[in-house]
Amino acid sequence: MALDALTRTRTETDSLGSLEIPADAYWGIHTARALENFPISKRPISVYKDLVRGLAMVKQASARANREIGALDPRKADLIDQASQLVIDGQFHDQFVVGVIQGGAGTSTNMNANEVITNIALELAGREKGDYAFLSPIDDTNRSQSTNDVYPTAIKVGLGLDLLTLLEELDLLRRAFLTKAVEFHDVLKVGRTQLQDAVPMTLGQEFHGFATTLGEDYSRLKENAYLLCEINMGATAIGTGITTHPDYGTAVLRHLREISGLDLDTATDLVESTSDTGAFMSFSSSLKRNAVKMSKICNDLRLLSSGPQAGFGEINLPARQAGSSIMPGKVNPVIPEVVNQVAFAVVGADMTVTMAVEAGQLQLNAFEPVIAHSIFQSITWMRRAMHTLRVNCVEGITANHERLGAMVGASVGVITALTPFIGYAAAAALAKTALLTGRNVADLVVEAGLMSREDVIKQLSPARLSGLETITAAIPVVPRSTQEPDPGVWAPEI
After folding, report:
1. Mean pLDDT of 296-312
2. Is 70 exceeded by the pLDDT of residue 478?
3. Helix, strand, coil % (nearest 5) of the chain?
4. Which residues lie below 8 Å from residue 77, measured CB to CB, with a gap of 6+?
């Protein structure tokens, strides 16, 4: 019985001839031909659930619009509407089987959606799959539509939905860094420029900077999202609206806005919007920006945690797995490393999108499938990378207080905070002495009689060194002609 179910087929026919389709498949002959023609990625479009949902939303909106304007029998429109809703709710996604990379400007994807939704509707009506005389994938489910307006619109709707979940993860990651900024707010450390010791700061300031960077990217992504809101439904083949009712465009926009919850609008020039895919390039670029900046943060985390004995060793990342098959006890920063690699992939995907946008010709861009795949993959991988970075790394970071304190104490960079009181020349001379002898800068300043111990302690407090507490009183002018420390020059108490 099971074997019979596997071997049973139904015959479907298109303009090229007939094919046997598995009896249980909701897809049909157009999908079958795509499976034969494009065995490229071996990744079905169903890996991007929001693209599938976007397709179903477009079909549902079209069915409602066609019913409203009298272009489709109400009973047929209602069946398509119900079938589309099942797909929107997450059912039948395994039937969206065409590859993410395909020729034909997305026609195979559009037909896969038409066939699946039609056969679901046929079952709802008590009919057999493939009974297209009763309900047709092309004449009914695709009524008033073309791949050339359905496909780009579905991509934009899907990306709009996907972006919402990406932004949620991005904000959670930002908040995780903020939490650490609060935890480390008074932990002094040595800042670095060009990988050389600079002036002191707090570890909290460093982590707050990470949070601010991610917050800026949150804003940029939201700003670029508006580019996805311009759709071309009603354009049909090339933007002239051939085969559509004059009221269809307005009606389908209203219904699609309601169904998707997105602030969509119809392009003012449908010919231009059907051929131009620049919006995808701009949106992809904003994803690249976020990925690159997140990768930079991960580079910093790897540097700050390097060691544990011969590196910076300022922070400790959670140990996630053994780091070597030969070196016992070695633990690697695997979470930041995987985020780095995601960023590399996103940068490459953005280049792919750029070249595909450039390659469009005349009234249509035939390369939207690779554009869609590249952007959806970038969003998917970035969302997952943000999650693992937050949960498996950032939330468990601890500060190596003892090492941080020792490095600040031995750093000549702290003398920068004393230059308003002892002068640059004296500070430079003492810095040189500290480097040569390895002695504490504060001790050298006091021994030279340039400042009292009390004043040095005050000026080298965490709040002063990190700039959290500013000097508001007038700073006395210090003679700049002195090349060596002058025991008689010191700053009055502030």
Report:
1. 92
2. no
3. 60, 10, 30
4. 63, 64, 66, 67
Compute φ and ψ for 246, nearest 5 degrees.
-55, -30
Q: What is the SS3 assignment for 138?
A: helix
What is the distance between the alpha carbons of residues 198 and 147, in angstroms, rounded to a whole number?
58
CA triplet 179, 184, 189: central angle to 5 degrees? 145
296 pLDDT tier (thresholds 50, 70, 90): very high
- The first and second tokens of residue 384, run together, are 């997952």
pLDDT at 1 over 60: no
Torsion angle (degrees, nearest 10) of CA 96, 101, 107, 110: 30
Distances, alpha carbon 200 to alpha carbons 186, 191, 204, in Å: 12, 5, 12
Q: What is the pLDDT of residue 462?
A: 65
Q: Which H or E run includes 69?
A: helix 49-69
DSSP string for 206-236 = HHHHHHHHHHHHHHHHHHHHGGGGEE-TT-T
Q: What is the mean pLDDT of residues 184-210?
A: 89
Q: Which residue has the tokens 């929001």?
A: 50
| Residues 150-235+258-401, CATH architecture | Up-down Bundle (1.20)
Answer for the pair 392, 318: CB distance below 8 angstroms, yes or no: yes
Beta strands in 135-229 (DSSP E): 188-193, 196-202
Of 180, 121, 106, the residue nearest 366 (C-alpha): 106
CA distance 315 to 300: 11
User: How do residues 433-460 score in pLDDT, each as one tens digit?
Assistant: 888 887 888 888 889 888 888 888 888 7
| Domain-wise residue ranges, the chain | 2-143, 150-235+258-401, 411-494
CATH 3.40.50.10800 fits 2-143, yes or no: no
Residue 140: which residues within 8 A CB-CB, separation 6 or more? Answer: 72, 76, 80, 118
3-class secondary structure, 399: strand
Q: 2 — alpha (psi -120 to 50), left (phi > 0) or beta?
A: alpha
- Rounded CA-CA distance 405/307 in Å is 17
Q: Catalogue the active-site residues.
A: 324
Residues 136, 184: contact at Cβ < 8 Å? Answer: no
Res. 86: pLDDT tops 80: yes
Which residues touch 61 (CB under 8 Å, ≥6 apart)? 233, 252, 255, 256, 259
Task: Convert the pLDDT of each residue in 15-71 to its tens digit.
Answer: 999 999 999 999 999 999 999 989 998 899 999 999 999 999 999 999 999 999 999
Strands (E) across 251-363 are located at: 265-266, 315-316
The pTM (predicted TM-score) of the whole model is 0.86
Distances (CA, A) of 417 to 53, 444, 455, 473: 58, 14, 12, 15
Contact 223, 200 (CB under 8 A): no
End-to-end CA distance of the chain, in Å? 93
